[in-house]
Amino acid sequence: MQNSEEKIRCPWCLGFPQYVQYHDQEWGVPVFDDQVHFEFLILESAQAGLSWATVLKKRDGYRRAFADFDYKIVAEFPESYVQELLQDPGIIRNVLKIRAAINNARRFMEVQQEFGSFSNYIWSFVGGKPIQNSLKKGDPSPATSPESDALAKDLKKRGFKFLGSTVMYAHMQATGLINDHLVECFRYEEVKL
Q1: DSSP 8-state code for residue 77
Q2: Which of 20, 55, 66, 84 is least surrounded by Cβ atoms within 10 Å, i.e. has the fewest?
Q3: Is 10 marked as binding a ligand?
């Protein structure tokens, strides 16, 4: 068996150990659990304009501050708690992003009511099956797709915030709706459905 240093990985993850662990264990794994989708929606909307490394380093802070990503609790956060969060160095202290997370928790539950689950809703944008891209080393990595465009447009119509097409493409990659591991990466075949 190869040791982890010998495995071929997507080059973007080689910056620091948390990135490698995230790449090897989570990124691109198809997600059907609503709470996991909500976690990634919070983290990815917080990322807007920042690096994913910054967000990953604060993930535990977000987990603590956002009730372990329980959207039912987040939807009920009062304004007094927003003010507390603005003082919390464990998260990205941007009032618009914090308020967006609370708003998005409420919209998230509306989608659940309409579709039975958020997972049912989001997977409908890829026909219920992951898109298998075939990126090779040196290929440009897409930032959006027709599917992420359609998803972001629909989310905006439903009142979600900070979830444009680029953010939603990242969400689709992270949660396995799109397999953007390089074909030579050891995870490419492992995450295929």
Answers
A1: -
A2: 84
A3: yes
Q: Does residue 3 sit within a domain?
A: no
Domain extent for 20: 9-190
Q: Tokens standing for 39?
A: 């976690």
Q: Give the CATH number of the domain where residue 53 resides.
A: 1.10.340.30
Question: Could you say which of 12, 22, 26, 110 is catalytic?
Answer: 22
pLDDT tens, residue order, the chain (193 aa): 344 558 999 999 987 899 999 999 999 999 999 999 999 999 999 998 899 999 999 999 999 999 999 999 999 999 999 999 999 999 999 999 999 999 999 999 999 999 999 999 999 999 999 999 999 999 998 999 999 999 999 999 999 999 999 999 999 999 999 999 999 999 999 998 7
Residue 22 bears catalytic tag: yes
Number of folded domains that form the chain: 1
The distance of Cα 54 from the centroid of its chain, to the nearest Å, equals 14
Determine which one of 19, 27, 39, 52 is catalytic. 52
Q: Is 44 a catalytic residue?
A: yes
Q: Is residue 84 part of a domain?
A: yes
Exactly one of 19, 27, 44, 123 is catalytic; which is it?
44
Separation in Å, CA 114 to CA 32, 54, 107, 109, 118? 17, 34, 11, 9, 9
Q: Report if residue 170 sits inside a domain.
A: yes
Q: Is 84 a catalytic residue?
A: no
Residue 65 belongs to a domain: yes
